[in-house]
Amino acid sequence: MCEVLELSRSAYYAWKNRIPSDRNLRDQRLAQQIQTIFWRHRRRYGARRIAAELADQGEVCSPRKVAELMAFQGLRAIQPRSFVPRTTQSRHRLGYSPNLLLEAGEPDSPDQLWVGDISHLPLSDGRFCYLAILMDRYSRRIVGWHVEPSMTEDLVIPTLQKAIQECQPKPLVIHHTDRGGQYASSRYRAILNRAGFQQSMNRAENCYENAFMESCFGTLKTELQMTEYKHHEMARREIGEYIAYYNLDRKHSALGYLTPHQFERHT
Questions:
Q1: At what angle do helices 22-40 and 63-73 cross, to 10 degrees?
Q2: Cα–Cα separations (whole angstroms), residue 31 to 19, 26, 34, 58, 63
Q3: pLDDT tens digits for range 139-198
Q4: Could you give all domains of the chain from N- to C-terminal order, each with its CATH number?
Q5: Where in the numbering of this chain does the Integrase catalytic domain appear (predicted)?
Q6: How many whole angstroms separate alpha carbon 180 and alpha carbon 88?
Q7: How many whole angstroms separate alpha carbon 95 and alpha carbon 114?
Q8: Three-state SS for 1?
Q9: Residue 134: enclosing H or E segment and its boundaries?
Q10: In what order do the strands lie in the sheet with 128-136?
């Protein structure tokens, strides 16, 4: 073998019998930890998030070193798609609320600003079911969600009710969404009024004003590698598992590589 590879036998045996250095031993141990974290998060973590996870475990390692060891093992994280804006068609006569975000500052604690939106989930028979989400803008925590076969107020009302029941927010929370008719219905607005919320909506044809929710849906669909579901119950089950992961385990770069749960505990 050495003759074919044009290596000296002495060099081969010196390499084979050498004692690994402390650095090599550490790299081997780190590589195993990195691989464990990478697959536990189902390829959703890149070098920076893995480095933050290692720090939580008491192992200080730079993102650059993590990236080197990931490349050596052929580990490549799922790449998020670029944000593509879309505009909701909201041609209804239910009335619109003003955009309160134009004058409101950045939230500095939970339950000051909730943002919400709806997205479609493809089904294997060519139809769709729909996912509604409410997110706390401060910590990025998903406070309410619901999946339904149709995109009516019966999709968004359970989302709001679950969020209020779980969080028990004080009055004057700003509730911001697009101008969709589901959020403008009398039933939905009655719940907001009873809770003392301030309703806010995008201005017409301005999708960037709810970009945080657009980005959230992009992350969710990318990391779930979403294709098609057999039925909406299956979609509901998988979405529920992911949202629990998103709130408790997924580190967010915008939060200093903390999870929403960690970020709220640190404030």
A1: 80
A2: 19, 8, 5, 15, 13
A3: 999 999 999 999 999 999 999 999 999 999 999 999 999 888 899 999 999 999 999 999
A4: 2-73 (no CATH), 113-266 (3.30.420.10)
A5: 106-267
A6: 7
A7: 20
A8: coil
A9: strand 128-136
A10: 142-148, 128-136, 113-122, 174-177, 198-201
**Tokens 């929403």 identify what position?**
260
172 touches 196 (CB < 8 A): yes
Q: Rg of the chain's alpha carbons, rounded to an integer?
A: 24
Neighbour-count burial for 133-168, b at 16+ CB within 10 Å, e otherwise: bbbbbbbbbbbbbbbbbebebebbbbbbeebbeebe
CB-neighbour burial class of residue 61 (10 A; exposed 0-12, middle 13-18, buried 19+): buried
Residues 6+ apart with CB under 8 A from 196: 170, 171, 172, 173
The tokens describing 239, both together, are: 């979405």
What is the percent of the chain with per-residue pLDDT over 70, rounded to a whole number?
93
With tokens 């930890």, the residue in question is: 33
Letter string b/e over residues 6-35, b meaning 16 or more CB atoms within 10 A of that residue's CB = eeeeeeeeeeeeeeeeeeeeebeebbebbe
> With bands split at pLDDT 50, 70 and 90, how would you rate the model's confidence at 83?
very low
* Separation between Cα atoms, residue 184 and residue 93, nearest integer Å: 9
> Which DSSP category does 254 fall into?
G
- Convert the pLDDT of each residue in 10-35 to its tens digit: 888 877 777 777 788 888 889 999 99
- Please say if the pLDDT value at position 240 is more than 90: yes
pLDDT digits (tens, 9 = 90+) for 189-211: 999 999 999 999 987 766 566 77
Helices (H), the chain: 2-5, 9-17, 22-40, 47-56, 63-73, 153-167, 181-184, 186-195, 211-223, 232-248, 260-265
